Amino acid sequence: AQSVAQPEDQVNVAEGNPLTVKCTYSVSGNPYLFWYVQYPNRGLQFLLKYITGDNLVKGSYGFEAEFNKSQTSFHLKKPSALVSDSALYFCAVRVTAYSGAGSYQLTFGKGTKLSVIP
Amino acid sequence: GAGVSQTPSNKVTEKGKYVELRCDPISGHTALYWYRQSLGQGPEFLIYFQGTGAADDSGLPNDRFFAVRPEGSVSTLKIQRTERGDSAVYLCASSRLAAPEADGYTFGSGTRLTVV
Predict the structure, then answer these.
(1) CA angle B7, B8, B14 (to 5 degrees)
(2) How would you class A112 by CB atoms within 10 Å of its CB: exposed for 0-12, middle for 13-18, buried for 19 or more?
(3) Fewer CB within 10 Å, N- or C-terminus of chain B?
(4) B82-108: per-residue pLDDT in tens?
């Protein structure tokens, strides 16, 4: 079974400072990894994904994430936080190898609430 | 439409009643997913449609839950004999291709179901 852990329920950061939202995963096989953001009363919005290749992936709104296979992590980062980045962030994973039923579903973490303080 | 539309946005029902939640995906998207998000949790997979057929229903919690997509577009999630534990936000997502890494999902805003 695959699982995702987001160890921090909440992250607070001052505007203009770098931010990191942590994610670790557990899969039997090679992972596809995703970050989504959820604003209040809005649907989940895709930020970025790792499939293969360069371990550092860049996504929307200046966010990036680094895939670390040895640490089974995929932390989300941004060099300079904005107040408008305040939202709920979800890490998700799916296993690449086709295994019949369940192969396309995503497994999400519990989410991390990011608060950027002006 | 421009996005994934879910109706109603909020639904309050009494324990034991039957409810239907509707999802209208982006035109031309053949893959459709239902997820359930309980308070303080991430979304959990329920069911995946490819066209009209349910390709993976392994996430449905029990036989009170059922979903259809008769014409390969609009989908309806049906819950019979609702229980208080069914209270959650039900999210629908669609994509042009089945695999989320190929095309990304587009999620709707969800239906908040409250069972009293």
Answers:
(1) 140
(2) buried
(3) N
(4) 999 999 999 999 988 777 666 678 999
Nearest-by-Cβ selection for B107 from A43, A105, A109? A43
Query: If pLDDT is split at 50, 70 and 90, which confidence band does B2 have?
Result: confident
The mean pLDDT value for A76-91 works out to 97
Please name the residue of chain B whose CA is at the shortest distance from the CA of residue A39. B109
Tell me which residues of chain B, numbers 36 to 95, contact chain A at a CB-CB cutoff of 8 Å: 40-45, 48, 55-56, 58-59, 91, 93
Tell me if the bond preceding B70 is cis, omega within 30° of 0: no
Asked if A87 and A112 touch (Cβ cutoff 8 Å), the reply is no
3-state secondary structure of B86: helix
Q: How many CB pairs under 8 A join A and B?
A: 69
Nearest-CB residue to A104 (from B41, B91, B99): B99
Handedness of CA B91, B94, B100, B103 (dihedral sign): negative
B6-64 pLDDT tens trace:
999 999 999 999 999 999 999 989 999 999 999 999 999 999 999 999 988 999 999 99
Distance CA(A21)–CA(A25), nearest Å, equals 14
Q: Report CB contact under 8 Å: B107, A44.
A: yes
Tell me what pLDDT residue A67 has.
96
Contacts of B4 in chain A (CB under 8 A): 43
| Host H or E run for residue B61 | none
- Closest CB to A104 among B40, B42, B56: B56
